Automatic annotation (TrEMBL):
Residue ranges with Low complexity bias: 607-619
KW Magnesium (keyword) present: yes
Family: Belongs to the NAD-dependent DNA ligase family. LigA subfamily.
Gene: ligA
Name under which the protein is recorded: DNA ligase
GO function term, MF aspect, one: DNA ligase (NAD+) activity
Organism: Arthrobacter terrae
Record-listed Zn(2+) binding positions: C420, C423, C436, C441
Keyword terms, alphabetized: DNA damage, DNA repair, DNA replication, Ligase, Magnesium, Manganese, Metal-binding, NAD, Zinc
Binding site for NAD(+): D64, T65, D66, F67, D68, S111, L112, E133, R156, E189, K302, K326
Active site residues according to the UniProt entry: K135 (n6-amp-lysine intermediate)
Amino acid sequence: MSLSPQNRQPVGVPVGGQFAATNHAEPGIGLGTFASTEEYDAAVTNALSAARAYERTDIEEMTDTDFDRLLAKIASHEAANGIQPAHDLHDSVGHGGAAGGDVEHATMMKSLDKPGEDAVIEFAAKHPKAVIEPKIDGLAISVKYEDGRMVRAARRGDGYTGEDVTDRVRGVDGLPEMAGEGDYEVRGELYLNDENKAKANAVRAAAGKEPFANARNGVAGMLNKQDGSYKGLFSFAAYSTTIDEKADHLDNMEQLEGMGFTTARSLLPQSVLDAADPMAAIAALGAERKDLGFLMDGAVLKVNTAAERAELGEGSRAPKWAVAYKYPAVEEPTVIEDIEFNIGKTGRLSIRARLTPVEVDGSVVEYASLHNVGHLQAADMRIGDTVSAFRANDVIPQVHLPRADLRPEDSQPWQPPAVCPQCSEPFDKSTELWRCHTPECSVSGRIAYAVSRDAGFDIEGLGSSIGDALIEKDLVKDVSDLFYLTEDQLSDLDMGATSTGGTRTLGQKNATKIMAEIEKAKAQPLNRVITSLSMRFTGRTFGRRLASQFETMEALQAATVSQLANVEGIGEKKAAVIHEQLKKNEPVIAKLRAAGVNMGAPKPKPEAGAKGPKLAKPSGEPLSVVVTGSVKGAPTLASLSRSGVQELIEANGGKASGSVSKTTDLLVCSEDGSSKWVKAKELGIRIVTPEEFAQMLEDGEA
Ligand SMILES: NC(=O)c1ccc[n+]([C@@H]2O[C@H](COP(=O)([O-])OP(=O)(O)OC[C@H]3O[C@@H](n4cnc5c(N)ncnc54)[C@H](O)[C@@H]3O)[C@@H](O)[C@H]2O)c1
Ligand SMILES: [Zn+2]
């Protein structure tokens, strides 16, 4: 089919600045042609790929504006060169990207023509009684009712057949399960409103995925997910029905509304078409877009009576009795001044562009989301690039279309940070959104460390997903907040959406368990309290040394830099850092103290004549002890973690060490032949079994 000249006009072109293209372009003029057949072929391939992604996935390979512009250029090239297109980009539903399915449609499900402003004005002049409705941006479905009961729902697909989605849309808001009597069909848009979009994106975030690019992509992605993880988050609005094919469109819509359906026109019913100035009504409808709470990408003009519908008839991919006007995305050119990173409170790396401030659609945009590393690299946007800033119906501004012709000569491709820019540790790249898990970088990492069995309070059951949920809800900002949680806060904690779209809470049973663990944790030894603060240079080893040196938190806080520096292995530099961080953590420590967390106690002075510490040399110096392998053989040691054993050694006056060297005094080892055993043998170091070691501690005889 060759296109009418009108159809070749670009639709939805952006307005303003260098990116402006006119909505009134003469057919084929200003759209340009491709320089070579190869370029034309590549453009067709790209457009088909984008259409496929658009119809079948939640991936947006290009924005609608880019897609429409590309399509217009392809059409213009074909017209200028007399090419009979071999592709079906122009005249198939879904631009050739749609796939059919199991359900055959009674009549073809079509698209809408978006012929541009002039044609819309002409349509309105010819059909002054036409009605105007919002064009909702989601996915079309057809729903069949038999005896007033919903029996089948299917996607538009290729227009002739579509995928069966019955079970996935049952219970959707605006789409009743039982309605009226008899057999009929309702067609309408399945869409995602802002409130549900936030919920759906929370489900995505929990799975480490980037939020949906926009609500329309969201519907596609959610519908493709067959496991129902987003069930209940859709909405439906009807725009046509077979309930009475002789009736006026408006009467039919009113009847559906009476039966419990939401209709497109009922979402914005106040706009009346003034045939003399249809663009005024379209603009009035468009003015409400920002505050609607759902995506509306255009306005639809439809004739009202059945007679007019029959008279105007159908085109191959769209009816002739309706036209749509697609609102142009508002975008403005600006320059990326810098690309900035931020590590969020749960450790996620977010990337944004700092822009030369520019006014877009009434407000100044200074920053734009660059999504994730993959997105930025694929788009090849660089510092210094002139880009187009837009809001795409979403609140967070975005940029796209880097202008190669305006790129500075010394421009370099953007490189993602090799390691976390804050702590220099490698990122966790297992999901689209990179994360840094270190305690230094994220509250998440700090809490995970603070509750860990090895280093911190050993709070069983408080895993990272619960930790993250507490952080998201701002219930926990630092470790001390854990000790102020209430059982109700825990049991009501929102753990994200369930497979049926409801919210999942942590529940009473889990809450009670965790509360008991938190209570128990208050008695953890001082070294663990110190470590749980996630200060630099106070890992497990130094935590133990500081605790045994200063005995109480009070003494540790009162210590001068040089007193801290005297602790083995610390030295002046680290001492200064620890000193500073102790000051910074004063409020946290105060809160821990007030919650009843153990702050240590001075060790009783040995009575005269009493034996010295158990793990000490006759000189009084601590024995350096290395424990390797399992200590399970010794019942008194079996329940201890690695750190527990080390703590025990130091509580008995010894010094725990991880590796065997000349200075080692004792190796506790159950496996003869291990590398540490061999080394100890070579160095003539005393070796005892865990059982013997347990006995030594009991007897107080080293
Ligand atoms: N970004 C991309 O890569 C890409 C790729 C392919 C297509 N697209 C976009 O998709 C458009 C074509 O897709 P399409 O045919 O699915 O949709 P469309 O936007 O051209 O409009 C037709 C659809 O509008 C819907 N609709 C909403 N409200 C309605 C109402 N009140 N009355 C009647 N219909 C209503 C119906 O589902 C109908 O099928 C292109 O113009 C392009 O912008 C984008
Ligand atoms: Zn980091």
